[in-house]
Each structure stands twice: as structure tokens, then as C-alpha cells.
Amino acid sequence: MTGLRFGQPAPDFKLPATGGTEIQLSALRGKDAVLVFYCYDWGSI
Length: 45
Hints:
Blueprint: E1 14-16, E2 22-24
Antiparallel strand pairs: 1-2
């Protein structure tokens, strides 16, 4: 996979959600969504 360019649609993916469930990006289509990715202080990145 190559990097995305501004304005290009994001590929569909799943992420863990609260309560032990998963959510798929396509399930949010047409809704406002904010995704926040961060590295823990103890992470290796």
C-alpha cells in the first residue's frame, strides 16, 4: 500500500472499539468521525 494523498478516500479497515467490539470504517460512511492515533509513552515507535 502506498501513502494517501489529501482528498483521497481512506481504505476500509477495522479497529477495536470500546466494550471489546470492533468498528469498520465503512460503517461510518456519511457520518462525521474523528480517528485519533497516538503512541503510548512506553511504545516502540
